[in-house]
Design goal:
This protein has 10 helices and 19 strands. By secondary structure, the chain is of the alpha/beta class. The chain binds flavin-adenine dinucleotide. The site of flavin-adenine dinucleotide (FAD) has 42 residues, from helix 1, helix 2, strand 13, strand 17 and helix 9. The site of flavin-adenine dinucleotide has 42 residues, from helix 1, helix 2, strand 13, strand 17 and helix 9.
Length: 435
């Protein structure tokens, strides 16, 4: 078994010219080269802005190349919770944005001819308990009534048409969701951003950012591992890897590790038995498993395997925990060889919601909570449109996530180092046991 991201074995990442010096001045500096940053860079560059994407590591190095490739509708929080937090009207706009975010990915993949196995295969949520299943019909009814969107509840006795596992109490299908190869998608986005004229600078960690004016114009001085640059505007797109260069944002984001294993290539017949419709699948627990077939028929199985503190053994330990979890779902995979294991970092806000807008004068979009493939792409585009509108004095684009309260830690007891994760992990396991 390799401690390696399987998706990276399927892709040629673009390699921008490492010797190219940073520009002295840009219209927009985008920090981070994942879906958010690259989607923003593409949009800004297409509108004629001079853009530099600054990346600590290499293109797509963060969550964007490491995820499950599930292009999902909805948000992490359930719809009733969302309505209680934001009211019907704003929740309707949020839900519409989540549906539009899938179209946004599909449109970019089409326009840029990105070969990333994008497919509208739908997603399946499976109920670990009878009461979770009982709630599906209520959720589907609210979603149909409030958002005019159809989900299909699948009774336990019909579930074999969806999944080759007998441990669940039923399921719920959303045909709108999609799947893709995320590393190929992020590589394609990077090529598209460069084609539009954006510069991407790898190994250019942003260390400090300061307000500054130049020739009478206000902007920002950024000091990076590859030297300084001055930008009119900054877009922070650092997700779960947000660090000390943007301390106010760092304090609002909880980085949480998630891990994935992939099996060897499975025989076609077994693959069809495990997932007859190649859905993107996740279960109903807080401490959930998510899984799918890869385009070449491996089982990809992910979850929040081991909590804090992470050590060099965490990835290997996670592989064993996930393998046991996978066999619990699919006893048929008892003898399947595990080829790869890897991990990455998710970004959670304290209210488990996406947030976008401006903080300390810089633009940002974060907080995707495991629903970032579509929403990060969408927010990158939307916040880039907002930047352009602010610059030109035009109308602000519709974005229901801008302007909602963005809570920090209770009592301010958080400096970006999530000391409370072991407690939170134990709490969620407890909740899964009792609820
Ligand atoms: C294991 C795993 C599985 C997941 N599965 C799914 C899934 O199936 N479906 C789904 O919708 N979502 C999933 N997600 C979430 C999704 O991958 C993320 O929400 C999304 O990729 C976030 O994209 P991003 O561009 O905002 O951030 P990232 O892709 O994380 O990129 C942030 C980048 O910022 C860079 N950076 C940070 N600080 C600096 C700095 N100071 N200077 C320069 N660069 C910096 C980092 O190096 C990093 O490359 C998963 C995440 C993980 C980790």
């Amino acid at each position: 078994m390799l401690e390696h991201n399987y998706w990276l074995t399927t892709v040629d990442m673009p390699a921008p010219d490492a010797g190219r010096p940073l520009p002295e001045v840009v219209d927009a500096a985008v920090i981070g080269s994942g879906f958010t940053g690259l989607s923003a860079a593409r949009t800004l560059a297409k509108r004629g802005a001079k853009v530099a994407v600054l990346e600590s590591e290499t293109i797509g190095w963060g969550a964007s190349s490491r995820n499950g490739g599930m292009v999902l509708t909805g948000m992490k929080l359930g719809v009733n919770k969302l309505i209680s937090m934001y009211g019907r009207e704003r929740t309707q706009r949020m839900y519409a944005a989540s549906l539009a975010s899938i179209d946004c990915v599909e449109q970019i993949v089409g326009e840029e001819a990105i070969a990333c196995d994008f497919s509208r295969c739908g997603h399946l949520e499976v109920a670990c308990k009878q009461k979770h299943f009982d709630d599906y019909a209520r959720q589907a009814e609210v979603i149909a009534r409030e958002f005019n969107h159809t989900l299909r509840v699948v009774q336990k006795n019909e579930l074999s048409a969806e999944i080759g596992s007998t441990i669940y109490h039923g399921g719920m299908v959303d045909e709108t969701s999609a799947g893709c190869n995320p590393a190929r998608y992020v590589a394609g986005l990077a090529r598209a951003a460069m084609k539009a004229g954006a510069g991407i600078f790898e190994h250019a960690q942003v260390r400090t950012i300061q307000r500054d004016s130049r020739n009478g114009e206000t902007g920002w001085n950024l000091w990076t591992a590859r030297g300084p640059l001055w930008a009119h505007e900054v877009f922070v797109a650092t997700s779960g890897y947000t660090g000390a260069a943007t301390p106010a944002l760092q304090k609002k984001i909880i980085p949480i590790g998630s891990f994935i294993i992939t099996t060897e290539v499975l025989p076609e017949k077994l693959a069809r038995e495990l997932s007859p419709r190649s859905r993107m699948i996740y279960d109903s627990k807080n401490y959930l498993y998510y899984y799918r077939l890869t385009p070449d028929n491996r089982m990809l199985f992910g979850g929040r395997a081991a909590f804090f503190p992470e050590t060099e053994k965490t990835i290997r330990q996670s592989a064993e925990i996930l393998r046991r979890g996978m066999i619990g779902v699919y006893p048929q995979l008892g003898d399947a060889q595990i080829d790869c294991v890897w991990g990455g970092t998710l970004d959670f806000a304290f209210d488990i919601m996406p947030h976008a807008g401006q903080l300390d004068g810089m633009y940002y979009a974060v907080g995707y909570a495991g629903h970032g493939v579509a929403m990060a792409t969408y927010q990158g585009q939307k916040i880039a449109e907002l930047m352009a509108a602010d610059r030109a004095g035009g109308d602000q684009p519709e974005n229901p996530f801008v302007g909602i309260p963005f809570p920090g830690a209770p009592l301010g007891l958080y400096n970006g180092k999530p000391w409370f994760l072991p407690l939170a992990g134990a709490w969620y396991k407890f909740l899964d046991w009792v609820s």
